[in-house]
Design a protein that fits this description.
The structure holds two protein chains of two kinds. Chain A is of the alpha+beta class. In chain A, about 40% of the residues lie in helices and about 20% in strands. Chain A has a domain of about 100 residues. Chain A contains 16 helices and 16 strands. In chain A, the strands form five sheets. In chain A, strands 1, 2, 15 and 16 form a four-stranded mixed sheet that branches. Chain A has a four-stranded mixed sheet with strand order 8-7-6-11. Chain A has a three-stranded antiparallel sheet with strand order 12-13-14. In chain A, α4 packs across α5 and α5 crosses α6. Chain A is globular and about 70 Å long. The two termini of chain A are about 30 Å apart. The longest helix of chain B has 18 residues. Helices cover about 25% and strands about 20% of the residues of chain B. Classes of the chains: A alpha+beta, B alpha/beta. Chains A and B meet through α5 and α6 of A and α3 of B.
């Protein structure tokens, strides 16, 4: 009789999911599935609304990365208006996205993932969270909280609120940066830099010791990587064009336009998950597996273009290769991206053009279809709208970063399960919690946002199930 | 709405005498927005408590958290003290008032006297209007809030 292990719910992610481990009659692992079990359907209920509302509407998809939807929707709106936005607006949007990347990456590293690294995979699961981290290392926890607060505060200074600020609009942004806000950012930057220095030093020490095995077995496999780059091939997060590189680092496609996304991306569906499975169309499904997000962005670019971030990128490549194929390196990549963000924020807020009062171009509808793209913390985000002559939406397609990592997340949990789950699993055996935690941690490498990827109402827990060949549940763990 | 001052840091949010008000809720979900309305212009408002608020709490002399409440039948607004919890109790995705106080104590070495003002909510469906039953509770809730601001809430009290 075949069996299945189920992890349900998966914890310390944004959304509701479960993992099932399927065993054959001999107790050998045959398949691992990451199921996303929530659904909301934003694409459908946005139909009929004015496209000018999309920034505000789609920002409501998520409380963690509303800025990403805000920017993608605003950029799509720019194209429907057929306007060039004022230079100050472009820079303010860039500042907003850098702050978003900073706060989201800080949340992922300090609040969600570092408890595994610092408290240990085998530590008490009731305390293996950010609150346990506070008790064990209050200085680090406080620094991490303040780093996230730094990013959130910039969002609030720009948009008037930390989440769901409908500040970016088609044609630009609603308001400029104040002098008081600029001064606050500059005052807090040194502390933010010190915190990420602390985190990088700590993480590299762990990588040289207790995390060396995780770096090797947490989702290390060949795949394509996709992300935005500048025309020169440098790191980009809001403008630029799309590049794919393969597992050898060769450029497979470059300077692609988001307008043509349907030519190079396609989406498959599986009956056991609400999360679609995007793939690189020329290679087909599932051979067209690709990864997006911090690691992919660092893999596709030639460099970042700022001195500290470029040094950190060089060290990441020296330690882990180029391209880096281990999904565990997403954690390291997030820290390198925070460095890049802080350097870029410092340069931007000192740019006199940022303070210019003209921040919005006004026009009426000039096109009936447009695609916008930006880099969300978790990867490349596409918004595709069709509108009628009154500007009412007749079609919406959202391709979300987490969805694009779906094939990679499934492959990652399978690789981890193969490494850590006994082979064969003895009949009636209990699976230690620490092993299941590692399987979950494979998902956390990608910092998935399931609320976004299914455009769904967010719940946080995770389930894991061990299933027999006939579908019978042999073991189950649920955590919230 | 945009709070005055620099927002999440909590700087500039004291209601005077070192008192910090935090209103919790979703202003787009009917009665759930009562915390926002009662605190608007006088403190911080948020959808939910997060660890980032601990610093503002630690900087305050005393704290009042205002929230909607699924009250037992017949109950009115309730003002009661809050004591810090063990920070690791409960799930890791939720920060409740006792845990927020615990984080402030752990990370910022400050034990802040705190109360919560719970206002019975009846209709949490989508919309920005309060139910008639909640509206009828607002005068009593305001009396409790003003009494707390005046420093007269040492023990739990009901309107």
């Amino acid at each position: 009789m075949t069996r299945t292990v189920v992890i349900d719910p998966v914890t310390r992610i944004e959304g509701h999911a479960k993992i099932t481990l399927h065993l054959d009659a001999g107790g050998h692992l045959t398949e691992t599935r990451f199921h996303v079990v929530e659904y909301r359907g934003f694409e459908k209920f946005c139909e009929g609304r004015p496209f000018t509302e999309m920034a505000g509407l789609t920002a409501r998809i998520c409380g963690i990365c509303p800025v990403s939807h805000l920017l993608a929707a605003a950029k799509t709106g720019d194209k429907l208006l057929a306007v060039a936005i004022p230079p100050a607006a472009a820079k303010l949007r860039r500042l907003l996205n850098l702050a978003q990347l900073t706060q989201s990456h800080a949340l992922s590293f300090f609040h969600l993932s570092s408890p595994d690294f610092l408290l240990g995979w085998e530590s008490d699961p009731a305390r293996r969270n950010v609150f346990g981290l506070m008790a064990a290392d209050p200085d680090l926890a406080r620094a991490g909280i303040r780093l996230r607060q730094f990013g959130q505060q910039i969002l609030e200074l720009l948009g008037g609120r930390k989440i769901h600020a409908a500040w970016a609009v088609p044609g630009g942004v609603r308001s400029p940066l104040s002098q008081e806000a600029k001064e606050w950012i500059l005052e807090r930057l040194p502390e933010a830099r010190a915190t990420v220095t602390l985190a990088l030093d700590l993480y590299k020490t762990l990588l040289d010791g207790p995390l060396a095995k995780e770096q090797r077995v947490f989702g290390d496999f060949p795949s394509l990587f996709m992300g935005l780059v500048t025309p020169e091939g440098l790191w980009e997060h809001i403008d630029g064009r799309i590049r794919f590189v393969d597992a050898e680092g060769a450029i497979v496609a470059d300077q692609l336009s988001e307008d043509d996304y349907a030519d190079f991306l396609a989406e498959a569906v599986e009956p056991w998950s609400y999360l679609k499975f995007p793939y690189y169309r020329p290679l087909g499904y599932p051979e067209g597996i690709y990864r997006v997000g911090p690691l992919a962005r660092l893999n596709v670019c030639e460099g970042i273009g700022t001195p500290w971030a470029d040094r950190e990128l060089a060290e990441l490549r020296q330690r882990s290769g180029r391209p880096v194929t281990s999904s565990f390196a997403y954690h390291h990549a997030r820290l390198v991206e925070i460095v890049a963000c802080l350097e870029a924020i410092e340069a931007l807020v000192q740019d006199p053009e940022l303070m210019h009062g003209r921040v919005r171009s006004r026009a009426s509808l000039n096109r009936n279809e447009a695609v916008g793209v930006s880099e969300a913390p978790r990867g490349t985000l596409f918004h595709h709208y069709r509108v009628d002559d009154d500007g009412l939406l007749t079609g919406v397609n959202l391709i979300i970063a987490t969805g694009q990592n779906n094939l990679a997340m499934n492959r990652t949990v399978h690789q981890i399960a193969r490494e850590y789950i006994p082979d064969p699993v003895p009949e009636g055996a209990e699976i230690p919690e620490a092993l299941l935690n590692r399987v979950e941690a494979g998902i956390r490498c990608f910092d998935p946002c399931l609320s976004c990827s299914t455009h769904a109402a967010g719940q946080m827990p995770l389930r894991l199930q061990l299933l027999a060949a006939d579908g019978a549940v042999l073991a189950e763990r649920t955590r919230g | 709405m945009r709070p005055a001052g620099l927002g999440a840091s909590g700087i500039g949010h004291s209601s005077g005498g070192g008192a910090l008000l935090i209103g919790i809720g979703n202003p787009l979900r009917g009665d759930d927005g009562v915390g926002w309305q009662l605190v608007a212009g006088r403190g911080l408002v948020c959808h939910q408590l997060t660890p980032e608020l601990a610093e503002a709490v630690a900087a305050a002399e005393r704290l009042l958290i205002v929230d909607a409440w699924l009250a037992p039948p017949g109950a009115g607004p309730l003002l009661r003290p809050v004591v810090p919890a063990a920070v690791w109790q409960g799930d890791s995705h939720r920060v409740d008032p006792p845990r927020l106080l615990a984080i402030a104590a752990l990370l910022f070495d400050r034990r802040v006297p705190a109360h919560e003002l719970l206002v019975p909510g009846f209709d949490f469906s989508c919309g920005e209007r309060f139910s008639p039953r909640l509206r009828s509770q607002l005068p009593a809730a305001r009396r409790l809030l003003n009494g707390w601001l005046a420093g007269s809430a040492a023990e739990p009290c009901r309107a």
